[in-house]
Automatic annotation (TrEMBL):
<keyword id="KW-0731">Sigma factor</keyword>
<dbReference type="InterPro" id="IPR014284">
    <property type="entry name" value="RNA_pol_sigma-70_dom"/>
</dbReference>
<comment type="similarity">
    <text>Belongs to the sigma-70 factor family. ECF subfamily.</text>
</comment>
<dbReference type="Pfam" id="PF08281">
    <property type="entry name" value="Sigma70_r4_2"/>
</dbReference>
<keyword id="KW-0805">Transcription regulation</keyword>
<feature type="domain" description="RNA polymerase sigma-70 region 2">
    <location>
        <begin position="30"/>
        <end position="95"/>
    </location>
</feature>
<dbReference type="InterPro" id="IPR036388">
    <property type="entry name" value="WH-like_DNA-bd_sf"/>
</dbReference>
<dbReference type="InterPro" id="IPR013249">
    <property type="entry name" value="RNA_pol_sigma70_r4_t2"/>
</dbReference>
<feature type="domain" description="RNA polymerase sigma factor 70 region 4 type 2">
    <location>
        <begin position="127"/>
        <end position="175"/>
    </location>
</feature>
<dbReference type="InterPro" id="IPR013324">
    <property type="entry name" value="RNA_pol_sigma_r3/r4-like"/>
</dbReference>
<dbReference type="InterPro" id="IPR007627">
    <property type="entry name" value="RNA_pol_sigma70_r2"/>
</dbReference>
<keyword id="KW-0804">Transcription</keyword>
<dbReference type="Pfam" id="PF04542">
    <property type="entry name" value="Sigma70_r2"/>
</dbReference>
<dbReference type="InterPro" id="IPR013325">
    <property type="entry name" value="RNA_pol_sigma_r2"/>
</dbReference>
<dbReference type="InterPro" id="IPR039425">
    <property type="entry name" value="RNA_pol_sigma-70-like"/>
</dbReference>
<protein>
    <submittedName>
        <fullName>RNA polymerase sigma factor SigM</fullName>
    </submittedName>
</protein>
Length: 185
């Protein structure tokens, strides 16, 4: 095999990264790092399927990066993104952790008083009704903040509203709901 052809062959392990097309470079990076990243992500998450999703997401993000910004440190970049994504998933799951029946039966109820539970349920339903009575844009902003735990900037980027407008909609909407709840009591 001609040495020059060998260097330009994207399937060659010895091809100089700077001589490869972007697609061939990505293929080489994927081939060289996928298994190690799968092992790492599986270790962090304890689940091969979720690890596979994280690794796939990491490579999708790599495809969106300008090659010249990551090429010299691509392995470190991949593992940092993979780690951060896995930790984000773990953090989200810990907030959403549900109890299985066996664990739930062992938990001590914080509100064993049926009256207190009924009052809390009624307050929740009232708050949901009041939220539904707000204008749709205000509802969306409040739901993104409360349910999505998004920052004002993230809500701004998602909705196209200014950060100041997001803050105003949140503040006024929550104030309306608080006032109406206080009046109803």
């Amino acid at each position: 095999m001609n040495h020059l052809n060998h260097q330009c062959d994207p399937a060659s392990d010895e091809a100089a990264p700077e001589r490869l097309s972007d697609q061939a470079w990505l293929t080489q990076v994927f081939r060289e790092n996928e298994l190690a990243m799968m092992g790492y992500a599986t270790h962090l998450l304890g689940d091969r399927d979720r690890a596979s999703d994280v690794v796939q997401d990491t490579f999708v993000r790599l495809c969106k990066q300008p090659r010249q910004q990551v090429q010299d440190r691509v392995r470190q970049w991949l593992f940092r993104v993979c780690r951060n994504r896995a930790l984000d998933i773990l953090k989200k799951e810990s907030r959403m952790k549900t109890l299985d029946d066996a664990n739930a039966s062992r938990q001590i109820s914080r509100d064993s008083d049926p009256v207190a539970i009924a009052e809390m349920t009624e307050r929740y339903e009232n708050a949901q009704g009041l939220l539904a009575s707000l204008p749709p844009r205000q509802q969306e902003v409040i739901r993104l903040k409360i349910h999505g735990d998004l920052s004002y900037r993230e809500i701004s980027e998602l909705t196209g509203l200014s950060v100041g407008n997001v803050g105003y909609l949140l503040s006024t909407g929550l104030k309306i709901i608080r006032n109406r709840l206080a009046t109803a009591e």
